[in-house]
Amino acid sequence: MPFTEYTFNAENSVDRIFYGRIDVKKSSSFLFYRENSVVQHLIHHLKYRNQEQLAPFLGDWYGQILKEDPGLQGIIDFVIPVPLHTKKLRKRGYNQVTGFAKKLAHHLEATFVDDLLLKTANTKTQTKKGRIGRWQNNKALYILSDMKALKNKNVLLVDDVITTGATMEICTEALLQVPGIGVYLTSMAVVPLT
């Protein structure tokens, strides 16, 4: 498996994706995502072939690594998956990130919540869009249902794949409306910078 071996205490290329864009404490990712790779096939099967069991499997694996990471020990209060719109959730039957995020929360001794960050509109797949297209498509699509619950808390926001970082950027902008919040980012995989 193409592990990134990035940690939450050393600078890495996932951090660099977000420099100058959003104020996050730290970013990382579990695996490298390349076209026609094992990771691409795993995530494709997870999202489009009803292989929901892959998410907790990967989350348990990565969670065991993260609980040993000194950059995260005892810091995270909430683990939040990037949400799906309710229509897409009904159609797919599950959020592909949920099982992964739940396992991370378990290993980090944090609370998993999937009802505080909400997606307000159903958008088409973003896999064929560039950074600007993703950003324009995502603008104002994510809202918070309860800002008070996150006040002065540290949140780990979780996605499946970080490509351009646009989705994580828009979700983080919504989270940063909360006073005193600290946002950390992670994903199952990241497209390597070229």
TrEMBL record:
Top-level taxon of origin: Bacteria
Pfam families: Pribosyltran
Domain Phosphoribosyltransferase, chain residue ranges per copy: 100-176
Gene3D superfamilies reported in the protein's UniProt record: 3.40.50.2020
Family classification: Belongs to the ComF/GntX family.
Protein name stated in the entry: ComF family protein
Source organism of the structure: Pelagihabitans pacificus
